[in-house]
Amino acid sequence: MCLEVATMASSVCLEIISTSSSSTEESEMQFLISPRVIESGKIEKNTAKKTNCNCELVDYDSLPEFLKHNEFILNHYRSEWPLKQTILSIFSIHNETLNIWTHLIGFFIFLILTYHASTLFPTSQNRSGNSSNSLSASTSDTFVSRWPFYLYLAGAMFCLLSSCACHLLSCHSSFTCYLTLRFDYAGISILIVSSFYPLVYYCFACLPFYRNLYLYTITLFGITTIVASLLPVFETAKFRAARAVLFACMAASGLVPIVHKMVAFGDKKEAVVSTVYEVVMGLCYGVGVVVYGARVPERWMPGKFDIAGHSHQFFHVLVVAGAYMHYLASLMYLQWRETEGC
Ligand SMILES: [Zn+2]
């Protein structure tokens, strides 16, 4: 039975359904998006439509081991739902909703940035010069390769999308959890490695020995990390610290070319301003990792931040902010090389 609810002070496009307050139905009501109202006018949160599956949100203690990651988030978990319902849950409210959307929106932001950059720096020009697929240095009268810049944008988008898929699908089964986590790790590695390319390629375009040294080293590092993360043992608690150290070392190794850049080109405005962007990027990533590791604020008030405000959501936002800072730095590197050549 449907009723108009315009007279209700707190109504927000609410649909009224005929329902009962039995515990079975209450539990089934945790699936769909829109708040619904029962005849008495009481607003039910996390309401659900009857489905063939047992698609209810559960508490932490009801989870299988492979879904137990944060004991300070107590409720609103999806657990081993059918694939279709798992995919559709992108539009419903649960404790992963904001984790999914923070990186999905980040992905679209980078898609727009890529389009914007392509209007500033077309990928082809009617200028003589080297192949854009070469590691050889460009000079001012030749075409400056764009691929390192676009490689970074592609790496950032891959990372954001794989993270989004991981948060959406990992609850479906232990297999999807294992698979999407591998993509998530690969995405982090690819973001870190691809971040080096515009920095190193453009800053050291005229110092090919260092340019190639840095690029080959970080690429090898990244491939090793991705291969290591494919091993099941990498996922075990015993290797959790090793995993974090590996990613942290890979990211921290970016300090070497940045310091080298300042030593070699510290008198140039582009080098200084881009370093400021890189420092802000480092702060975003650093604070994000600390918040993620400390699991605050949910540690202080378990259960209060299940839906919104838990550490992983802050971590995601800071990752997007850090990646955007590196985008600004990369634009500057490309402009610098475009203007000056070697
Ligand atoms: Zn995440």
From TrEMBL:
Keywords: Membrane, Metal-binding, Transmembrane, Transmembrane helix, Zinc. Zn(2+) binds at H167, H312, H316. One of its GO terms (cellular component) is membrane. It is a multi-pass membrane protein. It holds the Pfam family HlyIII. GO terms for biological process: response to hormone; response to sucrose. GO terms for molecular function: metal ion binding; signaling receptor activity. The chain crosses the membrane at residues 98-117, 149-171, 183-201, 213-234, 241-259, 271-294, 314-336. It is found in: Membrane. The keyword Zinc applies. PANTHER family: ADIPOR/PROGESTIN RECEPTOR-RELATED, HAEMOLYSIN-III RELATED FAMILY PROTEIN, EXPRESSED. This is Heptahelical transmembrane protein 4-like. It comes from Dendrobium nobile (Orchid). The lineage of its organism: Eukaryota, Viridiplantae, Streptophyta, Embryophyta, Tracheophyta.
